[in-house]
Amino acid sequence: MIVGLVKEIKNQEMQVGLTPSGVAAYAGAGHRVLIETRAGEGSGFTDGEYQSAGGQILPSAQDVWDAAQMIVKVKEPIKSEYKYLKENQIVYTYLHLAADRPLTDTLLKAKTQAFAYETITDASGGLPCLAPMSIIAGRMAVAEGAKYLETTFGGRGVLLASVPGVEQGKVHHRRRHRRNGGLQNRRGPGHPGRAHINYDGSVSGRVSDAKGE
Predict the structure, then answer these.
(1) Which of 25, 78, 95, 208 is deepest in the core (most CB within 10 A)?
(2) CA-to-CA distance for 120 and 142, rounded, in angstroms?
(3) How far apart are CA 164 and CA 30, in angstroms?
(4) In the chain, what are the helix, strand and coil shares in percent, each to the nearest 5?
(5) CATH architecture of the domain with range 2-119
(6) Per-domain residue ranges for the chain?
(7) Is 95 exposed, middle or buried (CB count within 10 Å of its CB: 0-12, 13-18, 19+)?
(8) Buried (b) or exposed (e) across 83-93, using 16+ Cβ within 10 A?
(9) Pair 116, 95: CB distance under 8 Å
(10) Which residues are bridge partners to 38 per DSSP?
(11) What is the pLDDT of residues 76-103, one digit of tens each?
């Protein structure tokens, strides 16, 4: 089979569908793996690493989509990728179709064989593809919450933890430098922004598949 790996283009998405070791596994099983140049850059993988693993680098996403029998992604195809979808091509990715009627209709019209990671179950009924993402999101929750208490990110400027001898919530903290934030506010997935301060003074935000990027 000809397997294709393309660069994720959804806003702020840095993950990649296959690591070099994954490519090596496919190549070792006799499959041909086509990779869009710089597909793994956001995750720290170079074209050279993919080539050493047995993959072939192609200059564009169009080239990969056109030649591959199966595409391995992370995020659902966004509108600019709809044109690539075609009949009988297999697409493995997180799809979340319940919240995306346009993509659902596009996949049906194109007759693409789409498999959603979040619906794959194992022999015991577990969700082996979804579980790791949930674990990562849970472990990041405290760190992200602490970050968005900072005034730089729209928070109240207090520490999440207490300081000995000081009443909790009274220590204000403002960091002077900026970082690229991954938390997304209530404007929805794909729209980076600050945390939302609720009427009761608590701070909340919205994260689309939180992960360590």
Answers:
(1) 95
(2) 28
(3) 61
(4) 30, 15, 55
(5) 3-Layer(aba) Sandwich (3.40)
(6) 2-119, 124-213
(7) buried
(8) ebbeeebbbbb
(9) yes
(10) none
(11) 999 999 999 999 999 999 999 999 999 9
